[in-house]
Amino acid sequence: MPTVQAATLVAPYQLEVHDYPYPTELEPGAVLLRMIASGICGTDKHTFRGEVEQYPGSETQRGATYPLIQGHENVGIVEAVGEGDAAYAGDGSELQPGDRVVPAPNRACGHCAACQRGFPYFLCTNLDSYGNALAADSPPYLWGGWSQYLYLKPRTGIFRVPDSLPDDVAVLTEIFAVTHSLERAAVVPRPSGFRPGDSVAVIGVGALGQAHAIKAQLMGAGRVFAIDPSQKRLDVAARVAGAEAAAADELRNIDLVVNATGFPGSFAKAVAMVRDGGTIIEVGAFVNMGAETFNPAVICGRNLTLMGFGGEDLKVYDRTLALLARHVGSIPFAEMVSHRFRVADAPAAMETALDAERSAKVLITS
Predict the structure, then answer these.
(1) Cα–Cα distance between 258 and 288 in angstroms, integer?
(2) What digits encode the pLDDT tens for the residues 165-205?
(3) Do 26 and 83 form a contact (C-beta atoms < 8 A)?
(4) Residue 244 burial class via C-beta count within 10 angstroms: exposed 0-12, middle 13-18, buried 19 and up
(5) One domain for residues 39 and 163
(6) Is the same domain home to 12 and 159?
(7) Both 149 and 226 in a single domain?
(8) E strands, 204-342, where?
(9) How many domains does the chain have?
(10) Can you give the residue range of the structural domain that contains 286?
(11) What is the pTM of this model?
């Protein structure tokens, strides 16, 4: 029987390469994806270190279960579709073997109260989460992208990649889809929200922060500032987004602050630099990193708007892919990727990704 190689986190700090059986039978409507590339996300680094409490304080709060095949920023080729039912792309057309696609990292149940109200997947109370919370301890095992193949359950959101979009850019789709946060801020009434000409500061310019800086520029921001201890990431943010490096204590009266760090202490910095009546977008605190001391009277007294986003929305994938395709000739998106490793070298890939001074986005390729 043929086997599939996949990087498997068996315990904190223990990332090993295991062989799994190739799935020969698929559920009706399921999709087997031959992986091209999968990114290492900040959440993956938290999970690697054993910091696994996700969606803290919500009904969907959970921890990762080992063994785990990580990888939720994925691009691949449709290898097969389970017989007995079709699988569909985001535009409603039927998927076929050979299609190059980006799958959503989560599958909502479709029947809980949040799903019935049309809310984004991250409010689903019965969420399947590829590369994050589906353990590789039972068939078909292949629930994450750090593998040669990825098994996608029926009704997973799957989106075709435009022919003009290189793989190293397509793999960034999930990250850029999270920037619908800025689109949401753009419709918040003044004095809050985001309008052309506004100043924007991004705290933490890993790939998620870089994507927000790029999107802010495309939406007409005035000056965009980047705050990060890594000079390499500041350099990338300058090239891809024209972001100006700054220290947190240098900035005040910023119209909109995006906090994309996922580390404690950063929220207080965001509050300190935003203007009265301004807006803070929190997109980095997906994993519980501990409590922060904060007086909520500051929000009222300064009339601040706080917007939290647990991820992307299926409704934005097609337009996100179109945006990337439209600007791929003028914005060097691929420079966000600093390293590529094969699945067999996943432990070295994680070691590299954890070193912010020498890495940006690290990919695992099949």
Answers:
(1) 18
(2) 999 999 999 999 999 999 999 999 999 999 999 999 999 99
(3) yes
(4) middle
(5) yes
(6) yes
(7) no
(8) 224-227, 244-245, 254-259, 274-282, 305-308, 337-342
(9) 2
(10) 179-308
(11) 0.94
